[in-house]
From TrEMBL:
One term under GO cellular component: membrane
Highest taxon in the source lineage: Eukaryota
InterPro entries, per database record: ALMT
Species assigned in the record: Heracleum sosnowskyi
Protein name stated in the entry: Aluminum-activated malate transporter 12
Membrane topology: Multi-pass membrane protein
Record-stated family: Belongs to the aromatic acid exporter (TC 2.A.85) family.
Protein's GO biological process: malate transport; monoatomic ion transmembrane transport
Compartment(s): Membrane
This protein's UniProt keywords: Ion channel, Ion transport, Membrane, Transmembrane, Transmembrane helix, Transport
Transmembrane stretches, start-end: 45-63, 75-95, 102-118, 124-144, 156-174, 186-204
Amino acid sequence: MSVLMVNELESVKIYLYVLMMKAKRFPGLAWRTMWRVGKEDPRRVIHSLKVGLSLTLVSLLYLMEPLFKGIGSNAIWAVMTVVVVLEFTAGATLCKGLNRGLGTLAAGSLAFLMEFIATEYGRAFRAIFIGVAVFVIGAAATYLRFLPYIKKNYDYGVVIFLLTFNLITVSSYRVDNVLKIAHDRFYTIAIGCGICLLMSLLVFPNWSGEDLHNSSVAKLEGLAMSIEACVSRYFKDHELEPDISRDKSEEDPIYMGYKAVVDSKAYDETLALHASWEPRHSRHCYRYPWQQYVKLGAVLRSFGYTVVALHGCLETEIQTPRSVRALFKDPCTRLAGEVSKALRELADSIRKRRQCSPEVLSDHLHEALHDLNAALKSQPRLFIGSKTNQTSNMLALAAATARQTTDKHLSSVKTDSSALHEWKLTKRVSEKTKEAERKVLRPTLSKIAITSLEFSEALPFAAFASLLVETVARLDIVIEEVEELGRMASFKEFDPDEITVTCEKPKVETASTYNNNLPSHAAD
């Protein structure tokens, strides 16, 4: 008993020590996290200060006696409006602010109409009328939320409409001065929305359109970086070792390059929606083609899936020998370099809002394709097979290896000698033996049988090369979408003297950056 108590005390001491060390490290960890978040995007710090300033301004409705006497306790609605409406970008704030204002105005007007009709008759009729009105309006407004256009643009406004209408209509049955209360609430909500709009549009504004524009540039540069890094790692001098653990994926430059592309669908659509609400702050006063950015993002995601598959070739169990890969290193490296160069030229044209070069698909790219084709034709034995006579030997080797591994495994499964001689356990041990044999034979025979195929040396590289050629085919589609974007957005004409393609490492937004900058209702 005393031994158990000593063990429990020791475990409690260890737990308390670990807890104390975590508490000691918490302030430093919290500070480093806050610093990292602000360093990733300094606009977050500015937005936080804007929210604090807005809340301070609406709090004056409570703190200053003259303002409080004029508005009263309804000033809390202004504070609630600032908390709910003020978002990271101007487009998101405009979307929520106008939705809240229009929803409140429409609900108030309809509620007053219902009140005017209901007061003409008795109290019993008034109660029935209010109940029917709440049912009909609630059901109709909720059904409207399922319409795609309403759900996309005015879903928040319909929710505010329902809330305000029910508050005014139902409370009017018991409260006499509901007209004055609704009037004061509408003014306080308008004050809150006005402060939010002023802060979003005039004080260091963050434009959703600019974020969408810059994210398209970053995605093109990230894909270019991933392709180059993929090919460079594939043709390294050392043998590739498959790594199926995903713990280090966040630090992998290849992964970071295409992750922001394949995860960008919701982010692009949200930014395009909010950008459509923003004023025409550029030199063009017509409607900007934000949906074309969404189409470009879809094409880039399709391109990104090819890069994902290309990255997967680096982590397969069966790899082409280094000596075979070295035969095709130069043409593959040149082809990847030309594809990356074209992607960076497209990114540069979007960044500078100019038409892309007519020769973005240069002759060097076609020459690299021909060189790769010639290199493949120069090694026919790799692809027509030179292991016909070795198949039976490889299978025999597989069986021998599997038998040795099985014997080794069975020796570890055995129990003590007295238990093994018992007749009652013979059947159970035989079942365990068969199960262990199957577990060992299956992966061993599968892997050796695959490597014994006639084209086993060329098969992994053939997959890699075909995916690399596929990036060239998908590059044509990307160029078409970028050219269409340039025409619809009236980008300036191409000038050969302005071409400056940067090869710096792009700042690609991670998933955390995407989610942190999303409006609250979009992130949910």
